[in-house]
Specification:
This protein is α+β, with helices and mostly antiparallel strands and 271 residues long. The protein has 2 helices and 20 strands. The two termini are 21 Å apart.
Amino acid sequence: MVRSLWTAATGMIAQQTNVDTIANNLANVNTTGYKAEVAEFKSLLYQTMQTKTTTANGENKPVGAQVGLGVRNSAITSIFRQGSMLASESPTAFAITGEGFFALQGQDGETYYTRNGNFLFTTSQNGMMLANSDGLPVLDTAGRPITLGTQYVASKIKVNADGQLTYPDAQNNPQPIGIQIGLFQFTNPSGLEKVDSTMYQASAASGAAINEANNNNVRKSEVIQGYLEGSSVQVADEMVNLIVAQRAYEMNSKAITTTDEMLQQANQLKR
C-alpha cells in the first residue's frame, strides 16, 4: 500500500506541471507569435509481481503481473499551428503564413528565430535598421542585418509576399531596393530550443535552418505587411484542459487519502 502513496504523488506532481503549462498558455493568449504548449507524460518503471509461468497443469499462462510505479512529464511541446491574423497600423508589422520564421541576430552574435513580426526601424551608424522591440536586428536572406540609408522614408517602404523591400519611384511605382527579409524553416520545429516566449534557437533536434530563398524543395511562406500573427492559444481548449488536469489532480490526492485510510485500518487490527 505504501507503493500507491508514491505512485499517486507522482501523478499529482505531473498534473501540477500540466496546470503550470496551461496557465502559461492562458497568460500568453495575447502575446504576438506565441505558440501554445502541451505537457506530455510517460509511465515510470513497472515492478514485476509475476512473470509468465505455467499453471499446475503445465499450461503457459497468457500474461504476467506488473504494476506501474507512477508517471512523469516526458516533454513540453510547442504546437506550431497558424495563429490568427491581427490588423496593425504599423508599416513595419509583418505576419507569416506558412511554416517560416524570421531571423534575428542576438547580442551574443547567435541567430535566433521568431514568428513575432512586430518590428520597427531604429537609427544606426549606417542609417535605419529593422529590428524587433528589444533592438535585435532582423536578418535578410544572406544572414545580414537589414539596414537602409538615410535617403529612405520608413513609412513609404513596402514589403511584398516573398519579403522583398520596395520603395516608390518618382511615378510612385514600387521598385525593389535589393533587400529581402529572410524566411527560414526547420525539419522539426518542435525541436527548437525556446529562448523566450516567442524566440527560438536551432538545436540538434530541430535540425539546421533551411533558407527558403535558396531551397526550392520547401513550400514557400508569405509575408503579409500590416498584420501580426496572434497567439495560437485556444482559450476554450485550455479551459477544458484545465478542468481535466484539476480532476486528475483531485483523483490522485484521493488515492493518497484512501491509501492512508487503509493503512490506518491495518494499524487498528490489533488493539
